[in-house]
Amino acid sequence: MASDASDTDTPSRHTEVERKFAPAETAVSPSFDGLSAIARVERLPEQRLDAVYFDTPGQDLAAHRITLRRRTGGPDEGWHLKLPAGPDERTEVRLPLGEGSDVPAELRDVVLAIVRDRPLAPVARIETSRTVDMLYGHHGTAVAEFCDDRVTATRAADDEHLTWREWELELVGEQADTGEALLDRLANRLFDAGAEPAGHGSKLARVLARAEDDAPESVRDPVHRAVAEQVAEMLVWDRAVRADAWDSVHQLRVVTRKIRSLLRASEDSFGIEDDAWILEELKLLAGVLGVARDAEVLAEKYETALDELPPELVRGEVRERLVEGGKRRYQAGWRRSLTAMRSERYFRLLDGLEALVAAEPPEAPPGEEAEPLSVESSYAKVRKAAKKAKAVAADADVPAAERDEALHRIRKRAKQLRYTAAALGKAKVADRAKAIQSLLGDHQDSVVSRVHLLKEATAARDAGEDTFTYGVLFSREAEVAHRAEAQIAKALKDLRKAVKAAT
């Protein structure tokens, strides 16, 4: 397994691809002879593993198929945080044992959106006697690991003891990325030896009697289901932001705004008003994330643009100001985002979102009916914004900034329509609305970029630097905006046709 960290005090991340099996107590270990991918098998000395698992009082980590343990014994003893990454795949975040038995802050922070301000305490202890067979390929490198485990587990809640036998198959090295077919062939040998699929994704799941792979209870209506899915996505992107994964701040911001848009479009279904605190908190969070997002987008935009220009057109300190300066602003914005995401205010927002999803829809007052979410009502807002933008564009006395804002309003309404249409299963409408959103997103990015270019060009001029390249980039951005404006009429026409066909 490859790690992305070299500092022993820094969490390292590993990809873990494994399957678990339930053999009979008297089953004989499988033979891997005759498999073309396996050249030899080496049995390692028996391992004694002792792991204490931690979770919140409500077992919130287990509910999200996450395990957190402190394990002694074996070659990888230490703290292990396992995060789901696919049917057979997990991302394992590791730290050395260190001193004491309290959960390290570095690991707690990874799952802070789930744990929030709830305590983490031991929920189970699992002791394992493990026999390991290392499976080597023809090039002499290990490709997989077969473990025969004898397990003794104790639940902290009632001190009940459980014992069972378990087999594990885990891919190692490069096979962890490309060896699904090998995993299937190896698994067949275990089935031939009398094993069955384990029926649980982790030993802890068995101890807690939690079926990790059970589908969640279906949500009542499309809108609640869509919001529930986005709240789940929010927790996933939260982890990515904390790891500073590429584009993660942008994606968390997108999810945050999508949730707000869906809630605003169906306030009656959730029993909230236009000025509900949860809508305001979502807006503020999106604003905080926007600082890092805008800096990241601009830095990448300018880096690409400068690389495309002939060298003789790139003059002065433009790359330092626009690219390196943007990267520094991104880091500052990212740290500001983390501060917000570690606050009690953020935890209460997540609590509120989960409560909205879980609550029964409010009953309408006698004699009234809640207005259902519909494509028609959302499209009417797009049409109104487009009509306003057309009138603004026709008035030569209107400032350019006001015309830009009118187009931006179309984008916001199209975005709301896209999310509504997707929630209601109107894919064609959602696609056409997305096209408008993307088109006018490029336009808005151009507006933001030109403002930024003017600001940086002024600073460069005041510092006595050559400002020629800023003008070149400004002209390119203006062309982007003009192209978007030229295409918007057709995009709106295509949307109108899609809405008509869907209704």
TrEMBL record:
Q: Which domain of life is it from?
A: Bacteria
Q: Which SMART domains match?
A: CHAD (SM00880), CYTH (SM01118)
Domain CYTH, first and last residues per copy: 14-214
Which stretches are tagged as biased composition: Basic and acidic residues?
A: 10-22
Q: Where is this region: Disordered?
A: 1-26
Q: What is this protein called?
A: CYTH and CHAD domain-containing protein
Q: Entry's Pfam families?
A: CHAD (PF05235), CYTH (PF01928)
Looking at the record, the residues that make up the CHAD domain are: 216-497
Provenance organism: Mycolicibacterium arenosum
